[in-house]
Amino acid sequence: MVPIEIQLPHSRLVMQGFQSNPYASRRAVALHGWLDNCYTFRPLAELLPEVNIMAFDLPGHGDSSTLPEGVSYDFHQYLVWLHELIAALDRVPDFFLGHSMGAGIMSLYAGVFPERVSQLILIEGIGPLTASEAEAPRKMRSYIESWSQQGRLRNALYANREEAIRARQKNGPLSLEGAQTLAERGVETRGQGVVWKHDPRLKLPSRYQFSEGQALAYLGNITARTLYIEATQTIIPDNDLTRRRKQAIRNFEAVTLAGGHHLHLDDPEPVAAALRDFWKHTLT
Predict the structure, then answer these.
(1) pLDDT confidence of residue 283
(2) DSSP-H helix ranges across 24-74
(3) Residue 203: exposed, middle, or buried by beta-carbon count in 10 A (0-12, 13-18, 19+)?
(4) E strands, 32-154, in order
(5) For the chain, what are the domain ranges?
């Protein structure tokens, strides 16, 4: 794995991560889930040397920049940062890969710029969190009240690295090995203890969210060949909302694999096989 660092040309934020094989002819850009980091893709990347997986820490996560004081992490802004990231690369990636929140970002981006995304891979995530218009005042109030208390936000201080890993594992659910992998990049010593180093402001409630109608409009605008990987122990509810989202994407295929929400991290071999099967016709 080779470290990679890109400064976003307009936001001036620095996004750090790794690339798995700079000499591969095909390239995938990968985004992780909420409060994770780019190492969530490391075990998977090790199994797929034919593709250069470029995985980045999102702003506020891992080793990437945090936002200045007084600025919020709005989900909409992740699309802007992704666009800047793609523009800073020497060419558009062949594959867009996302897990959980990263999958939500990737799916919205593919709807905004369908001409730039030809192959889309979503792991345990499809579209953004949504809320009805009637919920907007309550959500804004919750955000404002939480914002006024943000000075009290602190990430939990653990006695040692092992305690921090166990806490992350329980919060997953996540295998011990998976939590250890994330901790390699995600924890740091602070004072007399250890903390997960993501920006605690990421835990503030959203001040506004997409409506479900908006989410479906984005998904319906996707033209990319899309693979959706779902876990047998998925956290994505099997309901009408999820089914409508799947149906909204025109060129859509899905596979269900054994495991939980972090199946690509806990048991990457079946996921690697599914990806290789999905993109094999593009690797000629």
Answers:
(1) 57
(2) 42-46
(3) middle
(4) 51-56, 95-99, 119-123
(5) 2-133+208-282
Measured between alpha carbons, how far is 28 from 19 in angstroms, rounded to an integer? 9
| pTM for this prediction | 0.95
Q: For the domain covering 2-133+208-282, report its CATH number.
A: 3.40.50.1820
Residue 97 and residue 30 in contact, taking contact as beta carbons nearer than 8 Å: yes
Rounded CA-CA distance 28/72 in Å is 28
For 124, other C-beta atoms within 10 Å of its C-beta total 24
Q: Which helix (H) or strand (E) holds 221?
A: none
pLDDT digits (tens, 9 = 90+) for 86-119: 999 988 999 999 999 999 999 999 999 999 999 9
CA distance 272 to 276: 6
Whether residue 205 has a cis bond before it, omega within 30° of 0? no
Which of 225, 234, 242, 223 has its CA nearest to residue 264?
234
Distance CA 249, CA 227 (A): 10
Compute the average pLDDT of residues 159-168: 93
